[in-house]
Design brief:
Layout: H1 39-56, H2 58-67, H3 72-93, H4 101-112, E1 122-123, E2 126-127, H5 132-144, H6 149-175, H7 193-201, H8 206-221, H9 225-236, H10 246-278, H11 285-295, H12 315-318, H13 321-341, H14 349-357, H15 378-392, H16 409-417, H17 422-437, H18 443-463
Antiparallel strand pairs: 1-2
Length: 476
């Protein structure tokens, strides 16, 4: 017989086994980390909550929008939207002004017809005096835009204006990582009649160069040194005014990258310029020499009737070589003074930075300044003040040249150019707007412009970081 199967005995409810209690010392399963909201999410949520918050607390909401770092991008978005609407209204309601665009198109026609002698490419306003990327960009516009091209080009320039505003806001935001730079400084950048006129009604090449320059500054702030150098050279490939930033660029490159890193950036800048020229103008060495002589002509003469900054100087003096030599001497002297005593606010100053960076072959591969010694605003401050010095000493400024420093003015004023005085920080932009908006320029408007430049440069000098005032953290 098969063996009997054993059956389990019935258990009373009291006998039913219960799971053992979890010990207190047993670690619970880790919870997934909660990610902080992204800046874009924060900006969107802040913008959506603004109407209700404004009704509940209008004063507090306004203060947050103007001064609170968490509200930097919401205000920047609002200003960008306002600038877009205003820009479209200007294009639709204000007549386009024909100045250099026809000449640019005539120069493009000669280029497309096969002319490769740069000195012979010209238009109704004179010969082509800009580097090759300028010519390539306007050639692309000539080929791609429907005829008449001006209206379509105006909307492209509006996009450039919008992009410049966003990049400028990014420069301000990154510069305020260790000391907040308030976002209300962006407000004057959307209110300038002269700036909107240059961007939307004239179609000059200056805005194209400057948007690339600000992109380069952002790249350098994020320590993308090679990309920043590449973008800097592209900007230089449109207009040579970008060279005004070069002294400041050399200073910050040496400080942050060292001697070899500085040389690396200079090689990138040089190769880009050679590539732009060689793309169409390097069939013979003679053609290349002609190209660089025409595109980077430092001996150009300027007409007295178009100068905006020296109308109070008699024409005979303005046209003299001695006047140009004096301005060049002042320019070099100011660069040397700032380079020696203001652009290296670390213990020991410029001498210590040079000694550190050139101490040995190994040291040349290292940054000349220790991490954390320089403020996050240092890099754009040096670049922008270098440009301001160059503009103040310029042989002649024309109306479109306002774009060379317009977006930098509030930044420079807040970081010393306004002497820490609200009257100057708010008043100098109004002074400069009045000077740039006076047509034709008068002795009074030129003197007003010069006074604003002198106040800003002297303020940057007086309030700038002095090496003797900076102490090493180890000594504190």
């Amino acid at each position: 017989m098969p063996p009997k199967r054993k059956t389990a005995a019935k258990q009373s409810p009291k006998q039913v086994a219960t799971p053992a209690p979890v010990m207190a010392n047993v670690a619970e399963a880790p919870k997934p980390p909660t990610l902080p909201p992204s800046p874009s999410q924060t900006t969107i949520s802040t913008l959506l909550s603004l109407p209700l918050r404004t009704l509940q607390d209008p004063v507090g909401t306004a203060q947050s929008l103007l001064f609170d770092r968490s509200h930097f991008w919401p205000l920047a978005v609002l200003l960008t939207a306002f600038n877009l609407v205003l820009g479209v209204a200007i294009i639709l309601r204000v007549p386009y002004t024909k100045i250099d665009w026809p000449a640019y198109m005539q120069q493009v026609d000669m280029f497309l017809s096969g002319e490769r002698d740069y000195s012979k490419i010209e238009g109704e306003t004179g010969p082509l005096v800009y580097p090759a990327l300028h010519l390539y960009i306007y050639t692309a516009l000539h080929q791609l835009l429907p005829v008449p091209r001006e209206r379509a080009a105006q909307y492209i320039w509006l996009a450039v204006e919008q992009g410049t505003l966003v990049l400028t806001a990014t420069v301000y935001y990154l510069a305020g990582r260790d000391r907040h730079i308030p976002q209300w400084l962006l407000i004057p950048l959307v209110l300038s009649k002269r700036s909107h006129s240059i961007y939307l009604l004239r179609l000059f090449n200056d805005p194209l160069a400057m948007i690339l320059l600000y992109a380069a500054v952002v790249g350098l702030q994020l320590e993308y040194w090679k990309i920043g150098s590449f973008l800097f050279s592209l900007a230089l490939g449109i207009k040579m005014n970008i060279l005004l930033f070069l002294p400041g660029l050399l200073v910050v490159l040496f400080q942050f990258r060292g001697a070899v890193g500085t040389l690396d950036s200079l090689v990138i800048i040089s190769l880009v310029q050679l590539a732009l020229a060689g793309f169409s103008f390097f069939e013979t060495p003679a053609q290349l020499r002609i190209y660089f002589a025409a595109a980077f002509d430092f001996s150009r003469s300027f007409l007295y009737q178009w100068t905006v900054n020296w109308r109070f100087v008699p024409e005979s003096i303005f046209l003299s070589k001695s006047f140009g030599s004096l301005l060049l001497l002042i320019h070099l002297a100011l660069l040397i003074l700032f380079g020696l005593y203001r652009w290296c606010p670390v213990p020991g100053g410029t001498r210590a930075v040079l000694s550190t960076g050139l101490y040995s072959p190994r040291a040349m591969f290292q940054p000349a300044v220790l991490p954390g010694q320089l403020a996050s605003s240092h890099l754009p401050l040096v670049l922008f003040s270098s440009n301001l010095i160059g503009m103040a000493c310029a042989r002649s400024l024309h109306y479109q040249f306002q774009t060379w420093y317009f977006h930098q003015i509030p930044f420079l004023l807040y970081l010393g150019g306004g002497w820490g005085q609200w009257g100057l920080i708010l008043g100098i932009p109004a002074m400069l707007e009045k000077a740039w908006d006076t047509y034709p320029a008068t002795p009074r408007s030129s003197a007003l412009m010069l006074a604003a430049h002198v106040v800003m440069i002297s303020g940057l000098w007086a309030t700038g970081g002095k090496p003797s005032e900076v102490t090493d953290e180890k000594d504190e």
